[in-house]
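This is your field. Please look over both lines of this record.
***
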Amino acid sequence: MADKFDNDDMDFREVMDSSVDDTPIERKDTTVEETPKEGNTSSQSKDNESEYEDVCFVCRRPESKAGKMFHLPNGISVCDDCMHKTMDTISQFDYQNLLNNPALMDELNKHSGMPGLNFMDLSNFTGGAGIPNSQKIKKKKEEDTRVKPEFNIENIPAPHKIKAKLDDYVIGQEQAKKIISVAVYNHYKRVKTGTMDDIEIEKSNILMIGPTGSGKTYLVKTLARLLDVPLAITDATSLTEAGYIGDDIESVVSKLLAAAGNDIDKAQQGIIFIDEIDKIAKKKNTTSRDVSGESVQQGMLKLLEGADVEVPVGASSKNAMVPMATVNTRNILFICGGAFPDMEDIIKQRLNKQTSIGFDADLKDKWDKDPDLITKVTVDDLKKFGMIPEFLGRLPIVCTLKGLSKEMLVQILKEPKNAILKQYQKLLALDEVNLEFDDEALEAIAEKAMEKDTGARALRAIIEEFMLDIMYEIPKDDNIGSVTITGDYIKGKGGPVIELRTTEVLKGIGMKSAEN
């Protein structure tokens, strides 16, 4: 038995001696071929014609995110990043080219009992199927084309043309639309020009302040739809310093990169809208570490001013095993918006200090019923609210939006290109039914929306409530030709006017009776 072990040790030493010989060892090409073998040509072409994207066996990213794949036997795909990382890891443990020694590999395979392909064959662990289709993403069809934008940043139109297009979708807020049109025009002139002689044009980021439902987010969405630029909309409430519990600050740039289709050059000319910016104000009377307030403002300073940021490609977390890309935020337009509740109280407190005693003194309740009090906001008011001076200094343009009046709500119902009433008229037109709203109904809807005090968001909720019975009953009867919504129906004093295709006008057929 001892002689047997001695002989085995001698054989192994001979193999090791031969492996560390000074003679150079011819290195084999270990690159995985992307083209299939002749025997698998039909099956490989069938996979390429499949409706599902290839998914990396290691990192589980689809082909649309990871890029072109290496195809291994038994339907296994590995992305370029994982393949290179695997090869780099193996090369670190390849002491003196031992893995390229055929004699050593044969000897180790005899004693290890591991599957083929030297150490490991992934096909033995997959059941011959790779990744199931339930975990794959369907390929996008070629007929899915983007809507042609109204403008092009290569030939950006004048501010009055931008505002004219915004007027088709956004009612009121004339000053806000004018400010945004000028800011966007100057920003993309700056992007296109770069520098004028030795004068470097600084970036003009925007801070939008207005009550809820006044159209802040809708204004930015409309602007990005008109321009051929990527837009990323994110909430400041999810941002924390260095990603504590929530997202880290650089995740806003990751969302913009994803919106640009991972095109860095296109992302560096995009727009980032950070909503609920008032939620990262400094926390008052707190003893714990403020990781979601002032520290987030400090972390955003470099993004607003312009810096090179390392962001993950295809993911929002830096901990994901994805490649990193460097994005320069110098030409990215940042628009921050927030409702800033209780800001009116801060403005009143400042204005009431100017009151004095005498015949020309202002009354202390002078500003209590001012609907446009938010337009008198100053930088000092924002500082007192909890925004740090460094953060406000990088948002030089302050744009205020007024609260919506009853007349503006009526206009929002019927005038924009995609008005709510036009959407319902389109739905009933598919059933060959004409839908009309009289003026009294529009005013009644606006009055109910004013009571809810949530701006334009309340309009759809109110109309959904009163249109429920109509949308339910009309498909029952093919003789109905038109429906008119009246003010009495909105107020609960009557029903809608139903007109049949062949008879005279009937009131309230199949609808809520006057008693209801």
